């Protein structure tokens, strides 16, 4: 059985609690209790170091422990500086320091998302008197170097890591046990809903919630789309909306249903083929084919549309979305024992700016039902 750990926001919160404890008592602390909120449980997090920096300012350090998940942040240090603050405003002001990514599409705001804010605010406010205020600065000393090994830049986050996530528990997402965990979640939700939304990662889950989709109908799949589509059909789910970043979902249009890049890729081939079928000029097809990322290929199509008045993005991606829907149906059909499937699939693809590129015809209908 794989061992779960905790997400980065939990360690940042633990360090903040330890630093605030130092400001109160001028004493080191070896561990702190963090209310994870989601799930509703308490975690004991070890503190590596804590001490005062100056009058009214303290620093605490923890290290990330994601359990058996193959997470590149394992053992990375998380520093948090807490300082007493005067004046008006929130009792807890959260800032991103060195190594915390910046959201280029949100005015370079620190990439500290909703769950991290909720976790810090709730845990720290409980330690403050009504008239007390603090500033909390999160620093990830290795964040900038680790970020180049992630897909953060594809979602407009630069110069560091994101404090992203919807839960305090870091599941072993890169191990075989992941599929069993996701199947259990799917089984639970399939018993309550006829329509579900499959999201590969946290960006899809976060955007789907922002769009007003019921969180209880969201199912995280990571790269296990194929097996979970078949499972959904067996469980009697009527409708599946595939909602995700185009650089991942585009693989389904080529019949690739385990989307981890170590197993199979083909994004540029799939994009180039659909560009050719849509009638794009050969020199532009070549640019698409040799683009380093799916996002770069999309950018070229957008450039053509903006400079020539064409509609290549819509033409190409509408065809890709339709192919995703049909290939998903075919995949379910070929992998179910009874040979006929009842689950209908639709798709919505978004880009690095979290802007919707295209909704398939079926996906558009599903979205209207879900939102």
TrEMBL record:
Protein name: Cobalt-precorrin-5B C(1)-methyltransferase
Cited PANTHER family: COBALT-PRECORRIN-5B C(1)-METHYLTRANSFERASE (PTHR35863:SF1)
NCBIfam families linked to this entry: cbiD (TIGR00312)
Gene3D superfamilies: CbiD-like (3.30.2110.10)
Source lineage: Bacteria, Bacillati, Cyanobacteriota, Cyanophyceae, Nostocales
Signal sequence range: none
SUPFAM superfamilies, sorted: CbiD-like (SSF111342)
Gene Ontology process terms (BP): anaerobic cobalamin biosynthetic process; methylation
Keyword Transmembrane helix among record annotations: no
Source organism per UniProt: Chrysosporum bergii ANA360D
């Amino acid at each position: 059985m794989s061992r779960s750990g905790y997400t980065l926001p939990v360690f940042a919160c633990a360090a903040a609690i330890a630093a605030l404890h130092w400001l109160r008592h001028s004493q080191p602390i070896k561990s702190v209790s963090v209310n994870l909120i989601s799930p509703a449980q308490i975690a004991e997090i070890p503190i590596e170091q804590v001490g005062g920096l100056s009058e009214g300012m303290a620093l605490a350090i923890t290290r990330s422990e994601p359990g058996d998940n193959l997470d590149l942040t394992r053992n990375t240090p998380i520093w948090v500086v807490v300082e007493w603050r005067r004046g008006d405003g929130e009792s807890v002001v959260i800032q991103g320091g060195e190594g915390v990514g910046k959201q280029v599409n949100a005015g370079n705001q620190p990439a500290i998302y909703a769950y991290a804010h909720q976790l810090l605010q709730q845990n720290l406010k409980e330690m403050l008197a009504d008239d007390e205020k603090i500033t909390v600065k999160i620093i990830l000393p290795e964040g900038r170097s680790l970020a180049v090994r992630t897909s953060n830049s594809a979602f407009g986050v630069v110069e560091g890591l994101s404090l992203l996530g919807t839960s305090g528990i870091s599941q072993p997402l890169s191990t075989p046990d992941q599929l069993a965990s996701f199947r259990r979640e799917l089984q639970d939700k399939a018993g309550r809903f006829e329509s579900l939304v499959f999201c590969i990662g946290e960006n899809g889950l976060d955007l789907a919630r922002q769009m007003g989709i019921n969180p209880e109908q969201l199912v995280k799949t990571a790269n296990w789309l194929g097996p979970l589509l078949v499972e959904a059909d067996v469980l009697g789910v009527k409708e599946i909306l595939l909602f995700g970043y185009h650089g991942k979902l585009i693989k389904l249009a080529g019949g690739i249903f385990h989307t981890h890049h170590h197993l199979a890729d083909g994004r540029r081939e799939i994009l180039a083929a659909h560009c050719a079928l849509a009638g794009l000029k050969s020199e532009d097809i070549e640019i698409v084919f040799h683009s380093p990322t799916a996002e770069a290929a999309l950018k070229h199509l957008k450039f053509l549309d903006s400079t020539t008045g064409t509609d290549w993005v819509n033409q190409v991606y509408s065809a890709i979305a339709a192919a995703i829907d049909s290939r998903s149906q075919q995949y379910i059909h070929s992998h179910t024992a009874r040979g006929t499937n009842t689950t209908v699939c639709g798709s919505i693809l978004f880009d690095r700016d979290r802007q919707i590129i295209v909704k398939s015809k079926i996906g558009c209908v599903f979205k209207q039902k879900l939102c």
